[in-house]
Amino acid sequence: MSEKPKKSEAVEEPVVMQKLVSLAKRRGLIFQSSEIYGGLRSAYDYGPLGVELKRNIKNLWWRTMVHEREDVVGIDASIIMHPRVWEASGHVAGFTDPLVDCRACQNRFRADKAPTAEDGKIRCPNCGSGNLSDVRKFNLMFKTHLGPVEDDSAVVFLRPETAQAMFVNFLNVQQSYRLKPPFGIAQQGKSFRNEITVEHFTFRSCEFEQMEMEYFVPPPQYSDEGKGPDYWYDYWRKLRLNWYTETLGIRAEKLRLREHDAAELAHYAKGCADVEYDYPWGWGELEGIASRSDFDLTQHQKFSGKKLTYFDPDKKAHYLPWVIEPAAGADRTALAVLIDAYDEEPPPPDAKGDNVEPRVVLRLDPRVAPIKVAVLPLVKKEGMPERAREIIRAFFKNGVNAFYDEKDAVGRRYRRQDEVGTPFCITVDGQTAQDQTVTLRYRDDMQQDRIKIADALETVTKKVMAGGRDVRKPG
Ligand code: ATP
Known about the structure:
With 475 residues, this protein is an alpha+beta fold. It folds into 3 domains: 19-80 and 145-338, BirA Bifunctional Protein, domain 2; 96-139, no CATH class; 353-470, Anticodon-binding domain (Rossmann fold, 3-Layer(aba) Sandwich), CATH 3.40.50.800. It has helices at residues 13-26, 48-67, 83-88, 91-94, 163-168, 170-177, 229-246, 295-304, 330-341, 384-397, 410-419, 430-435, 453-466, and strands at residues 30-33, 40-46, 72-74, 96-101, 108-110, 136-139, 143-145, 155-157, 183-192, 207-217, 255-259, 271-279, 282-291, 310-312, 317-319, 322-329, 342-345, 359-362, 373-377, 402-404, 424-428, 437-442, 448-452.
């Protein structure tokens, strides 16, 4: 694997978030929901470039987890499910955070996130007062009503995770596809949690997208030699950690796998590990991989009264499979990808014109970059715009997202593309009409090659398909 170019030392970590949030807003990546009304603290909108970035991440996940695997299929279930689902899953009784009110400043916060004083009692994280209410349990599920009557019988919830639809549909999908454990069911979609503390931009919000897969394996007594649930737990932990580096181009030294200790584990769990990223505020979860025994199917069998066992024709046994669950978040991943890619290069000592400012560059892997190649006519005349648009059409035929820009001097256009992580720029000039050549400029080192249009198309398309963290190295 090629090395991603090193980041320059210019940006200090705590400053990165401020710079990134302002870049995200300025360049239409991510901004607060309903901004003209003062904004909502807990919800975010993805702009024209942000939607491309997040979609690339989701598509890469789908490709790795569904398309490229013979043993995993996808579903797209509804957000509103039968309310009994959430009783069976334990969310009605147990999906709570400990909530405390500060009597001094009216601040409301999570008791488990508050600082503790020397006497062992918690203090308000806002004003430091110890004059606090009792701890109350606060359920994180959003409640609403199905139909016109707002009584208790009509209460439904917005799903707080996508996973339950895979359990509820386990037999449907297994039978319609004649699947044999081990096999997986995957889903991507919105989930909702009424988080008490929303924090760190999109890291923790109330509406977010998950990418989850439930992998159903035979229980230990029916497993093939050496292929029990522990084997698959280990298998998915390794695969999922590597995905962030190999497919998204995140630097390996910024990722780790953190195994939960016994106190953190749910009673039914056989193991749980988080893939964590070293965010500017510290290590934070990107994805959890859990070995869940047959807890979920047992619960749904009990609450629905429907038999959910699988008949294994080889073992001649009916059983409830055990489950390994890799559960990731699309928004947290997008944020980690952006933070990891953000860089600023100080201007060279002899800088002039547009080059006196530090160069802001997102060193994104071409696979996740919102725009793969910008095609720029040097001037808006002599047929250059038409030739540039022809090249753009050729890129779209190859499935490569290309972008046309004719505004301002070409140096400024390059800077605009660097800032949003576009790995390549192609400039069409007067010579192009004569000899079918263009300049191909590389984002990371700003070097330019004069090459034939056909070669530029091939170089860029190959690199965008193959990915790899150094845009100079062919895919
Ligand atoms: P945390 O401990 O950070 O609250 P969690 O352990 O509750 O996360 P899971 O229930 O395991 O999270 O959900 C799987 C993934 O969904 C998380 O790894 C994360 O990427 C994403 N996710 C969960 N809650 C949120 C949220 N409030 N905002 C954004 N993403 C979230």
